[in-house]
Amino acid sequence: MHALATTADTATELAGWLRLQHLSGVGPVAARALLARFGLPPQIFAAPFEALREVVPAGVARAIVQPPKPVANSQLALTLQWLQRPGNAVLTLADAGYPPLLLEIADPPLLLYIRGRAELLSRPGVAIIGSRNASAQGMQNAAAFAHALSAAGLTIISGLALGIDTHAHEGGLRGTGATVAVIGTGADLVYPRRNLDLAQRIAEQGCIVSEYALGLPAMPGNFPRRNRLISGLARGVLVIEAAAQSGSLITARLAGEQGRDVYALPGSIHATLAKGCHALIKQGAKLVESADDVLQELQWLGGVPKAPPAAEDEPPLLAALGHDPLDADTLAARSGLAMGVLMGELLALELAGLVERLPGGLFQRCK
At the N or C end, where does the chain have fewer CB atoms within 10 A? Predict the structure, then answer.
Protein backbone atom coordinates (compact mmCIF):
# COMPACT_ATOMS: atom_id res chain seq x y z
CA MET A 1 0.00 0.00 0.00
CA HIS A 2 1.88 3.04 -1.25
CA ALA A 3 1.64 6.82 -1.16
CA LEU A 4 -1.11 8.36 -3.30
CA ALA A 5 -2.85 4.97 -3.60
CA THR A 6 -5.93 6.35 -1.88
CA THR A 7 -8.69 4.75 -3.93
CA ALA A 8 -11.99 3.71 -2.36
CA ASP A 9 -10.80 0.09 -2.20
CA THR A 10 -7.59 1.14 -0.50
CA ALA A 11 -9.49 3.25 2.03
CA THR A 12 -11.76 0.31 2.86
CA GLU A 13 -8.81 -2.05 3.24
CA LEU A 14 -6.87 0.40 5.38
CA ALA A 15 -9.92 1.01 7.56
CA GLY A 16 -10.03 -2.66 8.47
CA TRP A 17 -6.34 -2.79 9.38
CA LEU A 18 -6.58 0.40 11.46
CA ARG A 19 -9.63 -0.91 13.27
CA LEU A 20 -7.74 -4.11 14.11
CA GLN A 21 -4.69 -2.11 15.22
CA HIS A 22 -6.74 0.01 17.62
CA LEU A 23 -8.70 -2.81 19.21
CA SER A 24 -8.17 -2.83 22.96
CA GLY A 25 -6.49 -6.02 24.11
CA VAL A 26 -5.26 -7.01 20.64
CA GLY A 27 -1.50 -6.82 20.22
CA PRO A 28 0.60 -8.14 17.33
CA VAL A 29 0.51 -11.75 18.61
CA ALA A 30 -3.27 -11.88 19.04
CA ALA A 31 -3.82 -10.06 15.76
CA ARG A 32 -1.60 -12.55 13.94
CA ALA A 33 -3.59 -15.41 15.46
CA LEU A 34 -6.84 -13.83 14.27
CA LEU A 35 -5.44 -13.31 10.78
CA ALA A 36 -4.22 -16.89 10.64
CA ARG A 37 -7.66 -18.20 11.66
CA PHE A 38 -10.02 -15.93 9.74
CA GLY A 39 -8.02 -14.21 7.00
CA LEU A 40 -7.91 -10.45 6.35
CA PRO A 41 -9.56 -7.88 8.69
CA PRO A 42 -12.98 -7.90 6.92
CA GLN A 43 -13.26 -11.64 7.61
CA ILE A 44 -12.22 -11.12 11.24
CA PHE A 45 -14.91 -8.49 11.83
CA ALA A 46 -17.51 -10.65 10.09
CA ALA A 47 -16.73 -13.69 12.22
CA PRO A 48 -19.29 -14.82 14.85
CA PHE A 49 -18.59 -14.28 18.52
CA GLU A 50 -18.33 -18.01 19.27
CA ALA A 51 -15.64 -18.52 16.65
CA LEU A 52 -13.72 -15.46 17.82
CA ARG A 53 -13.91 -16.70 21.40
CA GLU A 54 -11.86 -19.74 20.38
CA VAL A 55 -8.92 -17.46 19.50
CA VAL A 56 -9.14 -14.50 21.88
CA PRO A 57 -10.63 -13.77 25.32
CA ALA A 58 -14.34 -13.00 25.54
CA GLY A 59 -13.80 -9.30 26.15
CA VAL A 60 -11.73 -8.97 23.00
CA ALA A 61 -14.24 -11.00 21.00
CA ARG A 62 -17.03 -8.66 22.15
CA ALA A 63 -14.96 -5.64 21.09
CA ILE A 64 -14.50 -7.17 17.62
CA VAL A 65 -18.22 -7.61 17.01
CA GLN A 66 -19.00 -4.05 18.17
CA PRO A 67 -19.15 -1.15 15.65
CA PRO A 68 -15.80 0.61 14.99
CA LYS A 69 -14.69 3.12 17.61
CA PRO A 70 -14.28 6.78 16.58
CA VAL A 71 -10.51 6.55 17.07
CA ALA A 72 -10.21 4.14 14.14
CA ASN A 73 -12.27 6.43 11.91
CA SER A 74 -10.21 9.51 12.84
CA GLN A 75 -6.99 7.59 12.24
CA LEU A 76 -8.25 6.57 8.81
CA ALA A 77 -8.82 10.17 7.77
CA LEU A 78 -5.42 11.24 9.16
CA THR A 79 -3.60 8.35 7.49
CA LEU A 80 -5.25 8.85 4.10
CA GLN A 81 -4.26 12.53 4.21
CA TRP A 82 -0.69 11.59 5.22
CA LEU A 83 -0.46 9.14 2.33
CA GLN A 84 -1.06 11.97 -0.13
CA ARG A 85 2.43 13.31 0.59
CA PRO A 86 5.21 12.04 -1.68
CA GLY A 87 7.41 9.38 -0.10
CA ASN A 88 4.88 8.25 2.52
CA ALA A 89 3.56 4.70 2.56
CA VAL A 90 1.85 2.12 4.75
CA LEU A 91 2.64 -1.58 4.59
CA THR A 92 0.32 -4.16 6.14
CA LEU A 93 1.30 -7.57 7.36
CA ALA A 94 -0.35 -9.02 4.25
CA ASP A 95 1.56 -6.88 1.72
CA ALA A 96 4.12 -8.55 -0.53
CA GLY A 97 6.60 -5.77 0.27
CA TYR A 98 6.51 -6.39 4.03
CA PRO A 99 10.12 -6.89 5.27
CA PRO A 100 10.75 -10.65 5.24
CA LEU A 101 13.04 -10.59 8.29
CA LEU A 102 10.27 -9.03 10.39
CA LEU A 103 7.99 -11.91 9.49
CA GLU A 104 10.45 -14.16 11.34
CA ILE A 105 10.03 -12.42 14.72
CA ALA A 106 7.38 -13.46 17.23
CA ASP A 107 5.29 -10.29 17.05
CA PRO A 108 5.64 -8.39 13.74
CA PRO A 109 3.61 -5.16 13.61
CA LEU A 110 0.31 -5.15 11.76
CA LEU A 111 1.18 -1.88 10.06
CA LEU A 112 4.41 -0.14 9.16
CA TYR A 113 4.27 3.59 8.52
CA ILE A 114 7.10 4.57 6.19
CA ARG A 115 8.75 7.77 5.02
CA GLY A 116 11.29 7.36 2.25
CA ARG A 117 12.74 4.30 0.54
CA ALA A 118 10.62 1.37 1.69
CA GLU A 119 12.80 -1.08 -0.24
CA LEU A 120 15.62 -0.54 2.26
CA LEU A 121 13.59 -2.46 4.84
CA SER A 122 14.07 -5.65 2.82
CA ARG A 123 17.77 -5.21 2.07
CA PRO A 124 20.58 -6.75 4.16
CA GLY A 125 21.43 -4.48 7.05
CA VAL A 126 23.36 -4.12 10.29
CA ALA A 127 21.99 -2.35 13.35
CA ILE A 128 24.38 -0.02 15.16
CA ILE A 129 23.27 1.04 18.62
CA GLY A 130 24.73 2.40 21.85
CA SER A 131 24.66 5.08 24.50
CA ARG A 132 22.83 8.39 24.13
CA ASN A 133 25.56 9.94 26.29
CA ALA A 134 28.39 8.57 24.19
CA SER A 135 31.99 9.78 24.31
CA ALA A 136 33.49 11.65 21.38
CA GLN A 137 35.47 8.52 20.50
CA GLY A 138 32.35 6.37 20.62
CA MET A 139 30.48 8.68 18.27
CA GLN A 140 33.44 8.73 15.88
CA ASN A 141 33.53 4.93 15.97
CA ALA A 142 29.81 4.74 15.23
CA ALA A 143 30.14 7.03 12.22
CA ALA A 144 33.24 5.24 10.92
CA PHE A 145 31.79 1.73 11.25
CA ALA A 146 28.49 2.84 9.72
CA HIS A 147 30.21 4.55 6.79
CA ALA A 148 32.40 1.52 6.07
CA LEU A 149 29.52 -0.97 6.30
CA SER A 150 27.25 1.25 4.22
CA ALA A 151 30.00 1.65 1.63
CA ALA A 152 30.11 -2.15 1.45
CA GLY A 153 26.41 -2.13 0.57
CA LEU A 154 24.80 -2.87 3.94
CA THR A 155 21.95 -0.72 5.22
CA ILE A 156 22.59 0.84 8.64
CA ILE A 157 19.69 0.49 11.06
CA SER A 158 19.36 2.51 14.26
CA GLY A 159 16.85 4.35 16.42
CA LEU A 160 17.36 8.10 15.74
CA ALA A 161 18.35 8.74 19.38
CA LEU A 162 21.12 11.13 20.30
CA GLY A 163 24.67 9.84 20.66
CA ILE A 164 25.61 6.58 18.92
CA ASP A 165 22.36 6.33 16.92
CA THR A 166 22.76 9.81 15.44
CA HIS A 167 26.31 9.18 14.27
CA ALA A 168 25.42 5.72 12.94
CA HIS A 169 22.76 7.32 10.74
CA GLU A 170 25.18 10.03 9.61
CA GLY A 171 27.74 7.41 8.62
CA GLY A 172 25.12 5.31 6.88
CA LEU A 173 24.00 8.24 4.74
CA ARG A 174 27.56 8.65 3.47
CA GLY A 175 27.60 5.15 1.93
CA THR A 176 25.62 3.38 -0.77
CA GLY A 177 23.70 1.28 1.73
CA ALA A 178 22.00 4.35 3.28
CA THR A 179 20.20 4.09 6.61
CA VAL A 180 16.90 3.15 8.27
CA ALA A 181 15.62 4.93 11.39
CA VAL A 182 13.18 2.91 13.50
CA ILE A 183 11.35 5.44 15.65
CA GLY A 184 9.23 5.28 18.79
CA THR A 185 6.63 7.88 17.79
CA GLY A 186 4.18 8.24 14.94
CA ALA A 187 5.95 8.55 11.60
CA ASP A 188 4.68 12.12 11.27
CA LEU A 189 6.66 13.21 14.34
CA VAL A 190 10.37 13.53 15.10
CA TYR A 191 11.89 12.76 18.49
CA PRO A 192 14.22 14.12 19.70
CA ARG A 193 13.62 17.47 18.03
CA ARG A 194 17.37 18.03 17.86
CA ASN A 195 17.41 15.41 15.11
CA LEU A 196 14.80 17.14 12.96
CA ASP A 197 17.30 17.97 10.20
CA LEU A 198 18.78 14.46 10.31
CA ALA A 199 15.30 12.92 10.11
CA GLN A 200 14.52 14.97 7.03
CA ARG A 201 17.70 13.81 5.32
CA ILE A 202 16.93 10.20 6.23
CA ALA A 203 13.42 10.54 4.80
CA GLU A 204 14.92 11.88 1.55
CA GLN A 205 17.87 9.49 1.20
CA GLY A 206 17.02 6.55 3.46
CA CYS A 207 13.93 5.38 5.31
CA ILE A 208 12.05 6.20 8.51
CA VAL A 209 9.71 3.51 9.82
CA SER A 210 7.33 3.23 12.76
CA GLU A 211 4.72 0.74 13.93
CA TYR A 212 2.94 3.45 15.93
CA ALA A 213 -0.17 5.29 14.78
CA LEU A 214 0.26 8.77 13.33
CA GLY A 215 0.29 11.51 15.92
CA LEU A 216 1.44 9.26 18.79
CA PRO A 217 4.00 11.24 20.82
CA ALA A 218 7.13 9.92 22.52
CA MET A 219 6.20 7.73 25.49
CA PRO A 220 8.66 5.77 27.68
CA GLY A 221 7.16 2.38 26.86
CA ASN A 222 7.42 2.90 23.10
CA PHE A 223 11.19 2.76 22.85
CA PRO A 224 11.98 -0.60 24.45
CA ARG A 225 9.22 -2.07 22.29
CA ARG A 226 10.51 -0.57 19.04
CA ASN A 227 13.94 -2.10 19.80
CA ARG A 228 12.68 -5.51 18.65
CA LEU A 229 12.21 -3.97 15.18
CA ILE A 230 15.74 -2.53 15.11
CA SER A 231 17.17 -6.00 15.73
CA GLY A 232 14.46 -7.74 13.71
CA LEU A 233 15.27 -5.82 10.53
CA ALA A 234 19.02 -6.52 10.83
CA ARG A 235 21.23 -9.49 10.09
CA GLY A 236 23.43 -8.49 13.01
CA VAL A 237 23.54 -5.92 15.81
CA LEU A 238 26.69 -3.97 16.69
CA VAL A 239 26.83 -2.35 20.14
CA ILE A 240 29.21 0.60 20.48
CA GLU A 241 29.47 1.95 24.03
CA ALA A 242 26.84 0.87 26.53
CA ALA A 243 26.71 1.15 30.29
CA ALA A 244 25.96 -1.91 32.39
CA GLN A 245 22.22 -1.11 32.54
CA SER A 246 21.92 0.34 29.03
CA GLY A 247 18.80 -0.05 26.93
CA SER A 248 21.11 -1.22 24.15
CA LEU A 249 21.52 -4.47 26.07
CA ILE A 250 17.76 -5.04 25.71
CA THR A 251 18.12 -4.76 21.95
CA ALA A 252 21.10 -7.13 22.03
CA ARG A 253 19.10 -9.65 24.05
CA LEU A 254 16.21 -9.40 21.60
CA ALA A 255 18.66 -9.89 18.73
CA GLY A 256 19.89 -13.11 20.31
CA GLU A 257 16.33 -14.34 20.81
CA GLN A 258 15.59 -13.55 17.15
CA GLY A 259 18.61 -15.51 15.98
CA ARG A 260 20.61 -12.45 14.93
CA ASP A 261 24.36 -12.08 15.42
CA VAL A 262 25.50 -9.70 18.16
CA TYR A 263 28.79 -7.81 17.94
CA ALA A 264 30.37 -5.59 20.56
CA LEU A 265 33.19 -3.08 20.42
CA PRO A 266 35.51 -3.42 23.44
CA GLY A 267 36.85 -0.48 25.39
CA SER A 268 38.94 0.38 28.39
CA ILE A 269 38.32 -1.59 31.57
CA HIS A 270 38.12 1.79 33.32
CA ALA A 271 35.39 3.19 31.05
CA THR A 272 31.80 3.05 32.33
CA LEU A 273 30.49 3.02 28.77
CA ALA A 274 32.48 -0.14 28.00
CA LYS A 275 30.88 -2.21 30.77
CA GLY A 276 27.85 -3.20 28.73
CA CYS A 277 29.91 -4.22 25.71
CA HIS A 278 32.25 -6.28 27.89
CA ALA A 279 29.24 -8.00 29.49
CA LEU A 280 27.91 -8.88 26.03
CA ILE A 281 31.28 -10.32 25.00
CA LYS A 282 31.33 -12.46 28.14
CA GLN A 283 27.86 -13.72 27.19
CA GLY A 284 28.99 -14.74 23.71
CA ALA A 285 28.80 -11.59 21.57
CA LYS A 286 31.52 -11.40 18.95
CA LEU A 287 34.31 -8.96 19.76
CA VAL A 288 34.97 -6.72 16.75
CA GLU A 289 37.64 -4.10 16.21
CA SER A 290 36.92 -3.08 12.62
CA ALA A 291 34.19 -3.07 10.02
CA ASP A 292 36.09 -5.87 8.28
CA ASP A 293 35.44 -8.05 11.34
CA VAL A 294 31.69 -7.53 10.95
CA LEU A 295 31.81 -8.21 7.21
CA GLN A 296 33.74 -11.42 7.78
CA GLU A 297 31.27 -12.61 10.41
CA LEU A 298 28.42 -11.90 7.99
CA GLN A 299 30.40 -13.51 5.15
CA TRP A 300 29.56 -10.39 3.19
CA LEU A 301 31.36 -10.00 -0.14
CA GLY A 302 32.96 -6.69 -1.06
CA GLY A 303 35.64 -4.53 0.45
CA VAL A 304 35.53 -1.58 2.76
CA PRO A 305 37.66 1.54 2.72
CA LYS A 306 40.81 1.07 4.75
CA ALA A 307 41.59 3.52 7.49
CA PRO A 308 44.33 5.99 6.55
CA PRO A 309 47.72 5.28 8.12
CA ALA A 310 48.61 7.19 11.25
CA ALA A 311 50.43 10.41 10.60
CA GLU A 312 54.14 10.18 11.22
CA ASP A 313 54.14 13.55 12.96
CA GLU A 314 51.61 12.49 15.62
CA PRO A 315 52.17 14.53 18.79
CA PRO A 316 54.35 12.58 21.25
CA LEU A 317 51.81 13.24 23.98
CA LEU A 318 49.22 11.18 22.07
CA ALA A 319 51.63 8.26 21.90
CA ALA A 320 52.20 8.57 25.65
CA LEU A 321 48.45 8.69 26.26
CA GLY A 322 47.82 5.46 24.39
CA HIS A 323 44.23 4.29 24.01
CA ASP A 324 43.05 3.97 27.61
CA PRO A 325 41.86 6.87 29.79
CA LEU A 326 44.64 8.31 31.97
CA ASP A 327 44.79 10.84 34.78
CA ALA A 328 47.11 13.83 34.50
CA ASP A 329 49.59 12.57 37.11
CA THR A 330 50.11 9.25 35.32
CA LEU A 331 50.39 11.02 31.98
CA ALA A 332 52.94 13.47 33.37
CA ALA A 333 55.07 10.59 34.65
CA ARG A 334 54.73 8.72 31.37
CA SER A 335 55.49 11.72 29.14
CA GLY A 336 58.12 13.39 31.35
CA LEU A 337 56.37 16.76 31.00
CA ALA A 338 55.95 19.24 33.81
CA MET A 339 52.32 19.54 34.93
CA GLY A 340 51.93 23.08 33.60
CA VAL A 341 53.30 22.15 30.18
CA LEU A 342 51.25 18.95 30.14
CA MET A 343 47.96 20.72 30.82
CA GLY A 344 48.71 23.29 28.13
CA GLU A 345 49.39 20.57 25.55
CA LEU A 346 46.30 18.63 26.63
CA LEU A 347 44.18 21.74 26.17
CA ALA A 348 45.59 22.26 22.68
CA LEU A 349 44.89 18.64 21.77
CA GLU A 350 41.39 18.91 23.22
CA LEU A 351 40.64 22.01 21.14
CA ALA A 352 41.94 20.18 18.06
CA GLY A 353 39.50 17.33 18.72
CA LEU A 354 42.29 14.83 19.38
CA VAL A 355 41.77 14.39 23.13
CA GLU A 356 38.59 14.19 25.20
CA ARG A 357 38.30 15.18 28.86
CA LEU A 358 36.34 12.55 30.82
CA PRO A 359 34.70 12.72 34.25
CA GLY A 360 37.04 12.12 37.17
CA GLY A 361 39.95 14.08 35.71
CA LEU A 362 40.72 11.49 33.04
CA PHE A 363 41.82 12.10 29.43
CA GLN A 364 41.37 9.88 26.39
CA ARG A 365 42.49 10.20 22.80
CA CYS A 366 39.79 10.58 20.17
CA LYS A 367 41.64 9.54 17.03
Answer: C
Check residues 28 and 266 and name the one with the higher pLDDT: 266
Closest CA to 361 of 317, 325, 311, 320: 325
Residues in the chain: 367
46: alpha, beta or left? (left if phi > 0; alpha if psi -120 to 50): alpha
Residue range 170-185, pLDDT digits in tens: 999 999 999 999 999 9
The model's pTM is 0.80
Q: Compute how many other C-beta atoms are within 10 angstroms of the C-beta atom of residue 193.
A: 9
Q: How far apart are CA 101 and CA 190, in angstroms?
A: 25
Q: How far is CA 144 from CA 274, 314, 322, in A?
A: 18, 20, 20
| pLDDT tens figures, 286-334 | 999 999 999 999 998 754 444 444 444 567 888 888 877 888 888 888 8
Residue 123 backbone class (left: φ over 0; alpha: ψ -120 to 50; beta: rest): beta
The Cα diameter of the chain in Å comes to 85
Residue 27 CA neighbour count, 13 Å, CB half: 5
Question: Residue 367: what pLDDT?
Answer: 58
**Higher-scoring residue by pLDDT: 192, 306:** 192
Backbone torsions φ then ψ of 279, nearest 5 degrees: -65, -40
